[in-house]
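Data availability (excerpt). The following record was deposited with the supplementary files.
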Amino acid sequence: MTLLQKTRPRSKEGAALLVALAVLIILSLIVGSFAFEVQLEAMLVSHKRKRFHAEMMARSGIEYAQAILDMRGQAKQLEIEEMAEDKDGFMKAALYIKRGLSTTSTIELGEGEFSVTLESAEAGRNINLLTREEWLSILEMANVPSTDWDTMIDCLEDWIDKGDLHKLNGAESNDPFYQNAGYPVKNGPLDSVDELLLIKGWGPDILYGKEADEESDAIFGIADLLTVWGDGKVNLNTAGTDVLLSFAEYEDWELEGVMEARMGSDGEGNTLDDGIKNLGSVGANASKFKLQSNFVKVTSIGDVFEKKYQIDCIFLVEGSKPTIVYWEEGQVK
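Predicted structure:
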């Protein structure tokens, strides 16, 4: 037997081994890729499942809020012994809403929970009903440069009114600002506070404030002072201090007295006697203030394993059955 004949079988065995190894490597890559796709799909399904559950939690919060609103007419002063039966604070929440106060409830359901807040949608100044003098007071309070006031107010009035003639410092649809922006003036009332950002002369600094820099002073922002809901009267039981201070030039009541009256006779917050019962007791002008609201804002957040979903809506509570007049929803980032 020659040397060539002896080595030939070993060469075949080596080639077969290489082929087997190559096949194993390819199979490993296929299996690994498949396993990765399965794991990724499982993660996506889990994410969607948790998001769906969070959304359902948020919707449950809206139903819970509607039940509170339905009970507001039957709410009465709770007695001490009744408090033990009101474990989740449902009747207390209904009582608060009846008095025009805000209330928050957190309810656990299975593997998640929802947190729902009911508050007056009339706790700010109605953009569509403010007079020029009232706007001047608000802009001055926010430290907006006085040189901008006339342009801002005139452009706002041109945005709302139905005419095509612009005011002295205003702008209609033929103004270069709107032509460059690609949209006309609305010629109607604002539907949201953020709509101010579309109007010439207004911008994020005005609505949300800015810090002082070398060129200009700080602006404190006015978004939290405003609303588009209601008849123009501000709910005195829930309005923020800045909103109330914007009336200081025209009213003779004291802010401190309002805050004390909100806490009731016991002087403590979050108790059964909370809420101002009479406008006259704090010297408030009935033509500008109210104690209950016809529009209630509901914010419901569903939370399932830290996946959150939020629904914001506005209820019109005139009559016996609350009606939803605004709705916005989405995942909380």
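Summary of structural features: The first strand starts at residue 103 and ends at 109.
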